C-alpha cells in the first residue's frame, strides 16, 4: 500500500503544482488557464504517454481497491484531491478570474495529505 | 566551482528540465540535441550512454526516482523485483549505476527519505542530496541543493594539513562543521579515540570560526579531578594548597578565541554544574575569587564515548548535555568505516613520517645512493604494478606488497588514524634503517624502490589486536567485555532478560559497525558464525535494517 501511495505522491502530489512553479508573478489569465490545463490534464507525461490528474486518481482508487477506507487520512486525502480536481472548470473558462493563490494552495495541499496518509499507514503496520 | 553548473536531468518527463530551463542565468542543461531548450534523458540506458561520452561536460545529475518507461529500458533494481516496483524505484537503480561508473559526479535525487526506505535504500543514500517538491518554496530548495552538491564535489579531499578523504559522509561532516564553526554555540564532537577530534578542533573549527583570540586546549582526562575547576576557571593565590600565585583558567586564556575541552565525559560532577553555568552566563569566577569576569569563548568539547549514554548511566548531567547541543553533535566515523580513505591516509602519513628528523637523515643517506637527487621525497606504493605506474621520478618509493596491504585493509583499526600513523611511521623507519644499515655495510642498490618487509605489517597489526575491540569497549580483569545496560521493570523476568540481551546485542552491533563476523568472533570466538548471530538478533526483535539506518 505504501508503494502505491508513494506512486501517487510522485505522479500527483509532485506534478500537480509544478506548472505553476515557473509561471511569472504577473501571468495573464490565459497563462494561468494554460498552466491549469497542464496541471490537470497533462499531469504526468512520460514516454509511455500522458495522464491527467483525474485519471491518476481514479487508477489509484482502483489499485487501492477499498483498502484505505478505514483510514482517517484517506478521507482527508479524498477531500483534498476532489477540491483540486474541481479546478477543471477553470480551464478555458471565459469571463471569470482565476485565483492563482487559491489554485496553488489547493494543488500544494495534495502532497502533504498523501504523506499524512502514508504516515498513518506506516504507524499502524 | 562552475558559476553556472551544467545539469544533466534524467527524468522520463520534461517537467524538471523545463523548470531549470527557466533559469538560464543560473544553470546550463546538458544532454540536449538539436537545440532542445529543456533537454532531459528519459531512462537509465540513455543517461549512462550519454555519460560514457560526455561525463566531463556534466557538473551534477538531477535524477528522478519513478520512471514510467518500457520494460526493456529499465535497469534491474533487485533480484526478482516486479516490474511495477522496478519502475517505481528505477531512479535508485540508475543512481547505483551512475555512482559505480562515475563516482565523481554529484547526484541530486528528486525524492524524499521516507520513499527510499521502501526500497531499503535509505542508508545507502543517507549522505546524498535529496529534494522533493511539496510546495512552491521547494523550487528554491532544489536550486540550493544543486549548487550545494556542485560545491561539495568541488571541495578538495585535502585542505592544508587536513585530509578529509573521498567519502560523502566526510564531505557532509565537513560542510556541517564549517557552518557550526561560524556560530557562537558550543560544538560537541564524538568519535572513538584516534579519529582526529582535537586535530579538527585546532586546524579547522578554530580557523573557520574567524575568532581573533587563541586556540586553547585542555584534556580533562589528564588532570586530577580536584584540580579541574582551577584549570578551567582559574585560581587566586591561596585558594588551595599549592596555589602560590594567581593563575588564569583556560576560559580566560581562550577569551575571544576557541576552547577545546577534550574527554569532557571525565569532568567531575561539580565541575559539570559549573560548566553549565559558565556556558549559560558566559561569566567565570576563579577559585578563591569573589568577582566574576565576562568571557567570550567558542567552546568545543569532545568525547570518545557517547555522551547520551553517559547521561543515561547518570555519569553526565543531562542539562549540560542539552546545553552542548546534542542535535548538532558531530560524530566522526572510525577508520574501519572509511576503507576507501585508508590508502590516501597511508600515503600522506608516509610522507609526513619521512619529514621526521631521524627519517630525513636516513633518507638523505639512502636517496643519493640510488641515484635520486638531493632533497628527494618518499612515497608509498602498493604492489609492483602501481609502483611502476604511479611513482614520481624524484622520490624513494617504499613498496608495500599487496598481501601486506590486504592485512591493513582487513584490520579493524581500534586506535583509528593515530594507530595507522604509528604503523606507517614504523614501516618507514624500519625500511629506512634496514636500507641505511645495508649501505653502511657496503651493499649497493640500483633501484629507488625499496620493498617493505611484509612481516613487519603483520607483526605490528598482531600486536595491536589485543586492543582490537571495535568501539574501544572496556574489559574486566577476566577479559569479558563490559557493556552498559539499562534495567527497567518489565512484566516478567524473562522479559527483563530479553531486554538486557537486546541492549547488549545492539551495543555490540554498533561497536562492530554492523559486522556480524566481528560480532560472532566477540560472542562465540568464531567469525564463521555470523549467521547465527544475525538470527539471534531477529529472535530478540532487533531489526537490522533499522539499526543500520541509525
Task: Record keyword descriptors for this entry.
heterodimer; A: 125 residues; mainly alpha; two-stranded antiparallel ribbon; 7 helices; 64% helix; 5% strand; elongated; B: 550 residues; alpha/beta; Rossmann fold; Helicase, Ruva Protein, domain 3; 4 domains; five-stranded parallel sheet; 12% strand; globular
Report the end-to-end length of chain B measured between terminal Cα atoms: 33 Å
Number of individual domains of chain B: 4
Class derived from helix and strand content of chain B: alpha/beta
How would you classify the quaternary structure?
Answer: heterodimer
Q: Going across the major beta sheet of chain A, what is the strand order? A: 1-2
Profile the largest sheet of chain B: 5 strands, parallel
Low-confidence stretches of chain A are none
Amino- and carboxy-terminal Cα gap of chain A? 11 Å
Number of strands of chain A: 2
Give the overall average pLDDT of chain A: 86
Structural class of chain A: mainly alpha
Which sequence of strands runs across the widest sheet of chain B? 2-1-3-4-5
The shape of chain B is globular
Mean pLDDT of chain B: 82
Please, how many domains of chain A? 1
- Helical content class of chain B: 40-55%
Sheet-strand content of chain A, in percent, reads: under 5%
Biggest interface, residues from each chain: A-B, 28 and 29 residues
Count of extended strands of chain B: 17
Percent of sequence in beta strands of chain B: 5-15%
Question: Can you describe what's shown?
Answer:
- The complex is a heterodimer of chains A (125) and B (550).
- Chain A has one domain.
- Chain A has seven helices and two strands; from the N terminus they run αααββαααα.
- Chain A is mainly alpha-helical and 125 residues long.
- The termini of chain A are close together.
- With 550 residues, chain B is of the alpha/beta class.
- Chain B has four domains: 6-154, 3-Layer(aba) Sandwich (Rossmann fold), CATH 3.40.50; 162-333, Rossmann fold (3-Layer(aba) Sandwich), CATH 3.40.50.300; 337-467, Helicase, Ruva Protein, domain 3 (Orthogonal Bundle); 493-549.
- Chain B has 23 helices and 17 strands.
- Chain B has helices at 15-21, 44-54, 83-88, 90-101, 113-117, 138-154, 168-182, 197-209, 228-233, 250-253, 269-281, 307-312, 318-323, 339-354, 357-369, 383-390, 402-410, 416-440, 454-464, 493-511, 516-524, 530-539, 544-549; strands at residues 6-10, 28-30, 60-64, 107-110, 129-131, 158-159, 162-163, 187-191, 215-219, 258-262, 283-284, 293-294, 298-303, 330-332, 377-382, 395-400, 449-451.
- In chain B, the strands form five sheets. In chain B, strands 2-1-3-4-5 form a five-stranded parallel beta sheet, sandwiched between helices.
- The two termini of chain B are 33 Å apart.
- The A-B interface holds A 2-3, 6-7, 9-11, 13-15, 17-22, 44-48, 104, 108, 111-112, 115, 118, 122 and B 12-15, 18-19, 22, 42-43, 65-70, 73, 84-85, 88, 110, 114-115, 118, 132-136, 139.
